[in-house]
Amino acid sequence: RRRVHGGYSRTFAVMERVCTTPGCGQPAALQCPKCLELKIPNQFFCSQTCFKTNYRTHHEVHKQALFQPPAFEYTGPLRPHYVFPSRAVPAHIARPDYANHIQGVSESERNAKRSATIEVHSDESIRKMRNTCRLGREILDIGARALRVGVTTDEIDRVVHEACIERDCYPSPLNYYTFPKSVCTSVNEVICHGIPDARELQDGDICNIDVSVYHGGVHGDLNETYFVGNVDEDSKRVVRTAKECLDRAIEMAKPGAMYREIGSVIEKHAKANGCSVVRTYCGHGVGQLFHSAPTVPHYSKNKAPGVMRPGHIFTIEPMINLGDWRDTTWPDNWTATTVDGKRSAQFEHTIVITESGNEVLTQRFPDSPFSAP
What is the pTM of this model? Predict the structure, then answer.
């Protein structure tokens, strides 16, 4: 708006309030009474009709404002924030057996646990896995590019979810034993299985994004830990060490190698860098099932059975801590954190054993976002 003073003019910017109904964009003046009561700013509507139509979605804003973390002896500074509802998957996308189960149970996995046999994948199965893992890499890279200070992990979930749908992939974590989101985001002292929520990422955070996708009847699984802004030297050390542990483990994966030896390679390198190795969670077979034989511990002196053979497909995903290796779980029954509140980092690849060594099915692209130094 322009105002004339004497012989000159000045321009004043007037902020136009816009309706908060998604996709509306009309000028708005009406305010939600509950938002006024809770002192929630910038919530305006263009009409009563828009307000009533959008109220079910808008009500999540009230829930977020009222959310309080459950009582618990948290080991570090991180606290849970409000978790928004799960995102929908279109009906045309093929899904695993647990997707619509009320308790998220995979009956096929339960049946497979009766046998410790490691599947030898056919050429056709490997071709499917290669394609699904490539899609998983595309999706992880898209999620990583969205990371920055001020972005919520729920926004990362949205980005990953939409990237899955665009590629006709089902996000494997969604409803797996009732996990409520489409990706795991593990920040700072969270070791794994962090639930995306309303917390904004802060300068100095580290954030692991764990992407798993189901496409063509098989799952692909991978993750990386990323820097958010400027991180301290200890954070750089644990992230670098976790990446190096994974790289060294992959180097020794070949026909005839014993699965239990992977842990020896990982723990030796972790200890040499002043870090420890989480023992509760392991790598695993992956394919038609999200989790199957073999079990791949990341610590030394384990008793994992099995010898690697061509056609075996499995993940290696060491979780490396700055302090104590032990973990505790938040009241959500998913989020695993370090017992001392110190930071943790993780990297994961899905690999297939070949006649001469191995192939990393989830390998990075030349333009994949930067993670470890």
Answer: 0.89
